[in-house]
Amino acid sequence: METVLHTADSRGHANHGWLDSHHSFSFAGYFNPDRMNFGVLRVLNDDIVSPSMGFGTHGHQNMEIVSIPLEGDLKHKDDTGREAIIKEGDIQVMSAGTGIQHSEFNYSNENPVNFLQIWIIPNQQNVTPRYDQISIDPSSTKNKFQQILSPNKEDDGVWIYQEAWFHLGEFDADTTVAYTLRNKNNGVYLFLLEGQVNIGDLSLSRRDAVGITKTHEVQIRVKESSKLLIMEIPVNV
């Protein structure tokens, strides 16, 4: 097993007043040649948006874009005619394909919204743009990994144009959990949302991440109550 540790304080940071964002990989004004991507995982932004503020209408092409609210609600609108409110516990996905225009705003005029913005490089180009959104039962992630994304329309969670699987899990302190890869040629990028865990000789705290390759299973020792996002993705790109 090979690992690369990305501590929370090593991320890029931009505070625009209305937006406070931490970048796990090079994005906008943050450029680090050693942090361009992890396999097909191109962007992982941890965004906090002020009340009633947000991202005005803008476009994307040929990218799978996943949004996961951690606290608060987002208001979504796009040029497919879709309007939606995305809440904590929801998973949103857009296949940008040939091109999609959208906006994302904090739905509240009182409280900030914190959400993850994730970009995955697709395995198909110029597909018809699409949007999907699901809600996750909080009990489904208790002391187990719940699949929230896959390449397959029939599976649990949303689906994207890539051989990727995402899982969320919330685990009690002093437990051990294993994640088995769906594809032996993939890698895993584990992002610790809350808590403290050990993976091998590495100790991870809140918002730390680790990229893992050359293994079929990841053993995680939970030191204190923790919430994890596991992104299994192709790495040989």
UniProtKB/TrEMBL annotation:
Residue span(s) of domain Pirin N-terminal: 9-120
SUPFAM superfamilies: RmlC-like cupins (SSF51182)
Record-linked InterPro entries: Pirin, Pirin_N_dom, Quercetinase_C, RmlC-like_jellyroll, RmlC_Cupin_sf
Gene3D superfamilies with a match to the protein in the record: Jelly Rolls
All residue ranges annotated as the Quercetin 2,3-dioxygenase C-terminal cupin domain in the record: 148-233
Family in the record: Belongs to the pirin family.
Protein's name according to its UniProt entry: Pirin family protein
